[in-house]
Predict the 3D structure of the following.
Amino acid sequence: MTTDAERRSVDAPETGLGRELAPYLAERPGQSAFALLQHGPAALLARAVLTDLATSTIDVQYYIYEDDLTGMLLAQRLLDAADRGVHVRMLLDDNNLRGSDFALKLLSSHPQVEIRVFNPYRVRARWMRPLELAVRFRRLHRRMHNKIFVVDGVTGIFGGRNIGDTYFDAGDTSNFSDFDVFVAGQLIGEACSSFQAYWDHPLAVPAESLSTAEVSDAALAAGRRDLARRLEAAGTIEERYDRARAGLTEVIEDPDERLTWARAEFVADSPDKLDPDRPSSSPLLERLFSLWDEAEHEVLIESAYFVPRRQGARFIMDQARQGVRTRLLTNSLAANDVTPVHVGYAKYRRRLLKARVELHEFQRRALTGSEDLRITGRRRRDASLHAKVAVFDRKVTWVGSFNLDPRSAELNTELAIVIHSEALSRQAAGLIERDLGPDRSWRLRLEPRGTGGLEMVWYGRRDGRTVRERSEPDATFWQRAVVNTVKWIPGIEGLL
């Protein structure tokens, strides 16, 4: 029997994007085309343009979908696509939904839009969630962390970004440095199958069933008008949109020159991983460490949250001692948006440094993105790393939603793409090395202490001058206090 996912994949070449790419895909069986998306505005524009080019289907799967400027912008374009007859499906984890049942109803009220909420709380009031979490902790602390944006079953965007201003360099006070990859071709079929498995899972609940509140047709129509007015007042990205659409159109018309073709793997958790009564090992963790184990010369990694635990730290140290140059970037205490996670990382720093692992910590004041690509005129104050990317021997690139921590390995569902391409890996390595620079990250070192022994120091650059710090740079009193408190909680490391 043919599944819905298979029908969507088979039908894709008959769509507009499919027809353009079909000749190139036929010439390269088993391969897909890729382009890296590091800058937030470019990643947002790519999603907007793909949505506008859609002629058949759009499948969207995210851990977070904010109802801010960028969330509204994509919502408007999804509704516009639905007006053209495009079938839109949105699958959102419930953990970060703001209780805005009206916003969900506004989208799902369209006959061409379906929304399902994954692993939902039964009580919709936000203030009741801590109580429900305590009662149903075994299930509710496990979340769907996957990120999928697939158009017409033939193109898509995957990586670390959720949907929200801070992920696209549009935040008022802070922004994430993140990493996505544009994909076209064979790999999309596997992504569609993964999406379908989650869509059909018992934990995926239709959004309209989560609220008994009725919303009139007049209220929904007024909501769409208000959405259009808010976007018009914000100005958003329209002045850059035409250029972005022309660029992506050129890519689709001439993918030989503008995209990297390569063999790739799609690795994803089963949605059953969220069932606490059916524990299973993560295929992502196994694949990541197999790639790491195969590396002969160099491993470059960015992981927003890094909690290796004893076994992982031992593996990383053994690889480094065997001559594999290991450079790892994670958040500094000041830059980490989830302060307790720092506890599970800090305890291993000295051991990793002694084993010659090169540790870097992202600076809270790092310059993220490119000023000429900014979405708005806002100037950010703080920065935080959110990327999950690795490069092995400059031959293989890993991009996805998977952090090097117990939560990704054991509690959340995740996905990743493994791209076997030296050309793309060299490009990804260059982008990571840019993040390792002293104006964006602190380099940790162990140096002799005057009274004997070794002390840990941080090196970076500020205003063109080298800076040396002897304690957590830029960290506030409260951040230090949280770390000093959380580290005494028994078993906390396994929940980070």
